[in-house]
Structure formats: C-alpha cells, structure tokens
Amino acid sequence: MSGFQIEQSKSKSATFFDVKTLDEKWKNFSKCVIMPQNVDRFDSYKNFFIRPDDIFILGYPRSGTTRLQELIWIIANDFDFKTLMEYDCGTRIPFFESPELSFELREKPLVTSFEEMSSPRTIKSHLPVQFLPDEIWTKKPKLIHISRDPKDAIISLFYLLNDFSPVPIKLEDFLEDFLSDNVLYCPYREYVWNFLNLPDYENILYLTYEEMSADLDGTIQKVGKFLGKTVSEENASKIKDYLNFEKMKNRKTNDNKFAYKKMMQIMHPNLNNDVTFIRKGVIGGYRSDMPKEYADRIDYWYAESGNLNQGYNYKNYAAIKKIFGS
User: Fold this and answer.
1) Cis ω on the peptide bond leading into residue 141 (within 30° of 0)?
2) How wide is the angle at C-alpha 87 spanned by C-alphas 81 and 89, nearest 5°?
3) What DSSP character marks residue 168?
4) 194 near 29, Cβ under 8 Å?
5) Angle at the Cα of 92 (from 87 to 97), degrees rounded to 5?
6) Which helix (H) or strand (E) holds 142?
7) Is 25 exposed, middle or buried, given 0-12, 13-18 or 19+ CB atoms closer than 10 A?
8) 3 state SS of 200
9) What gap in Å lies between CA 230 and CA 91, rounded to an integer?
10) Using CA atoms, how far apart are residues 152 and 286, in angstroms rounded to an integer?
C-alpha cells in the first residue's frame, strides 16, 4: 500500500478511513472515505485485470445501482430469466470492493471468484474514478453510471449504515459528516462530477434514478441499445415486472439478507440487527426524515460544485444541475 496515504476519517457518526492515491496521474483528486475492512485492498482494486467486454455499474451508494444492475444483467445475459430467479443478485453481479459479499458469504454462490465469471461480466462498484482499475482507461470496457438526488441517496445510506452500527447513528451527525465529506465514499460532489466529466471516454452511459423511475420503458431500451441488444416488447414487459419495486423488496434473491447477516457476524458478532437493503425507493422521500434546514443546506452546497478545484475540469455544470432539477 505504498502508493496510498491512509488516515482515520474525522467522521463523528461512524469509523471510516480516508484513502488518497499518491499516483501522479491523480494528484489533483481528493480522498475516498472507506470502510475499515477495505483499507488494505486498494492495490488489488487498481491492479484488477479488466476484460474488454466487462460491464461496470457505477454510482454513489443508494443511487439505484441494485435495480439498475438487475436490468443490465438481464439484457447482457440474453434474458436468462431462469438463472435470474435461481441465483441472487449479489452473486450474479459481484460487488467489486467487497467480493466476499458475492462469493464466500453467499448461500448459493454462482462462482467463487471474478476470474471464474463468464463474459460479459457485470460488476458493481461505488469507487470514485481515481480508484477504479488502471486497465479501465486502456481497455475501455462499458461503464454505466447512475446518479440520484443526493438528499434521497444520503437518507437511504443513513438507514443502511444504522442497521450495521452497534450504536445508533444520529441523523444530524450523519448529515454534518456528509456536508464535510466524511461519510462513506465521499467527497460526494467530486465523486459525481468526475464521472460526469470523464475526458475521452465514449463507452459510458449516464442514467439517473429519477429518469429510471419515471420512464422505465425508455431506460430499458436505452440500456439495450448501449449493450448492443434488441429488447422485444415481451422481454421488456418481463423486465418491468421483475423490477417492480415492491416485488424486488420482498424477493429473497434481491434482499441480500443472508450475505449481510454473515457480514454482520464478522464485523459485530454480538449484534443481531435486521438489515433492510431495499427500503422505499420514493423520489423525494427524504422529506419525511430530513429537516428542511439540512435539505436547503445540501441544495446550496451541491450548487457550489462548480467552484470545486479538485478532480477534472467541470465543464458540464448546466447539464448536471438539470439532472437534479436545480
């Protein structure tokens, strides 16, 4: 880990670590806030062997990556609904940062490593651009990035992390940590802006949670076109039924409960919390939890993204503001 600078995060709500790459290429990029168990894995992240036909699903946590990864897997695997229903989403679409969640801790693993996966591999990651595998920038696999209103994403992340916490996390502390870039995978603004401003990378599709929710038909066809697949009316109808939010919430292959229970036994052996992986999925749902003062602060804070001096040059400010209806 000689190529990284590591120190404990200043987070008040949980124990995280800040990791910063010392690679000259990424010298203008900031830290990434990460879970303690992943601190020693950054060499393996950067040196991961990429296949040109890999498909990476990318986005800040709780931005809709779970629903999107299922949509992508179905189309990329030629509408194999049998395997879809037989194996849970976490083993079909492994989580890059914590592969044990997809392999060792699964009740019924499909494979036991990334290397065993058949092509095209669909892989989910929440890592910011500067920590993705180096070979991504030379082999140019398909990247699909999803964004969501940060207020909805952070409230959803608050509830998930609370499920894993041995002591209750205070919402106010968590929101203050988010605004000061001390929550998991932060800094958030740089995270999103750098993906939306990737230079010289044409093999990427941008989506939003709000777009996918409002026009699932259009999103299905857009993903199909990007993957070079024709989606028939019959298959589109099957996909829509499978992606019904309430059905996903109650489906064992989507809830990740088995793997998360195993993970909790490792992290906190005496903790027996029930983890709710798929929660509400409502656009604007943050309003029932987040004080207006914080909602206004986050809106103002996010609008200041154009003044950031880290990461790529921010050329698409107007387009990015439009995504969140600002």
Assistant:
1) no
2) 90
3) P
4) yes
5) 130
6) strand 142-147
7) exposed
8) coil
9) 25
10) 5
220-256: per-residue pLDDT in tens? 999 999 999 999 999 999 999 988 877 776 766 555 5
145 is catalytic: no
Please give the biggest Cα pair distance in the chain.
53
Q: Domain map of the chain by residue range?
A: 49-323
Q: What is the mean pLDDT of residues 207-220?
A: 94
Q: Report how far apart, in Å, the C-alpha atoms of 276 and of each of 11, 129, 234, 257 are.
A: 23, 28, 32, 8
Amino acid symbol at 54: D
Of residues 31, 67, 121, 126, which has the active-site annotation? 126
Computed on alpha carbons and rounded to an integer, the radius of gyration of the chain in Å comes to 19
- 168 CB-near residues (< 8 Å, 6+ apart): 162
- 108-112, 143-147, 271-275: least confidently modelled range: 271-275
CA 213, CA 233: separation in Å to the nearest integer?
Answer: 19
Tell me the DSSP string of 66-131. HHHHHHHHHHHTTT-HHHHHHS-HHHHS-BTT-GGGTTTT-SS-S-SSTTTPPSSPEEEE---GGG
Q: At what angle do helices 292-303 and 150-164 cross, to 10 degrees?
A: 120
Residue of 268, 258, 223 whose CA lies nearest to 243: 223
The domain made up of 49-323 is a member of CATH 3.90.45.10? no
Each residue's pLDDT tens digit, 275-296: 554 556 678 888 989 999 999 9
Angle in degrees, CA 93, 98, 102, rounded to 5: 40
Distance CA 287, CA 314 (A): 29
Two structure tokens written together for 19: 């990791």
